Amino acid sequence: WSSGHKSTPLEHMNAAYRLSGKNPEYAVALGEMHLDQNQYDAAKSLALDILSSNRTHTSAWALLGDVHRNQKDWPSALECYHHALLLRSDFPKAQFAIADIYQRTGRPERALATLDHMVDLHASVAEDTEHLVLRGLAFADLDRPLEAKELLAKGSERLSSDQWDQQLQIIEAQIRLGDLVQARMAMGRVPLEQASNPQIQRLKSRMD
């Protein structure tokens, strides 16, 4: 699926979903594939199909939350993720998504509280790349530069090349913090094929 040839795996999963008698687990996997291709209506339809017969399917609530989050419908996304957490309190996928939404909507204290709760449940999550990045961004917004700089530099090193959008979040925060050396290093990790992206051009001009 990660190879870039997406039509064939999607067709295979569609076939597997039909042959399974519309098994909910296949439906979620198929929905995630549709979501990866920005086919939001198809992903949403699959999530709603599951929930119409099983309101306690946590992954279906998370999938529906992912659809709303990708569409920047933050209140609906939060509602879905909170539904999932009511059913399964220890659900990192939903918890990370909630922290990300709080971060993007200017509520860093809420983001940090969500991340702290995750560490209370599992101390090892503190070293997870997504946790490092979100925690660093929250500290940047809370004007705690020492913690922010350390976490953002560490998170930037660990992000994969296809997570360049998160890399841009880090760069923007590092520029605000005046950490231009690390910002330039992070920019060097953004794939070259994204060089013409207007957001990247704006960030580069702020580093000059």
Structure description:
This protein is mainly alpha-helical and 208 residues long. Helix content is 73%, strand content 0%. The chain has 12 helices and no strands. It has helices at 7-19, 24-36, 40-53, 58-70, 74-87, 92-104, 108-121, 129-141, 145-158, 164-176, 180-187, 198-207. The longest helix is centred in the first third of the chain and has 14 residues, at 40-53. The relative contact order is 0.06.
Structural class based on helices, strands and sheet pairing = mainly alpha
Helix content: over 70%
Which shape, going by the Cα principal axes? globular
List low-pLDDT spans: none
Largest sheet: none
Number of helices: 12
Rg, nearest Å: 18 Å
Strand content: under 5%
Could you give the order of the helices and strands? HHHHHHHHHHHH
N- to C-terminal separation?
Answer: 38 Å
- Overall mean pLDDT score? 93
Care to count the β-strands?
0
For the structure shown, list the relevant keywords.
single chain, 208 residues, mainly alpha, 12 helices, 73% helix, globular
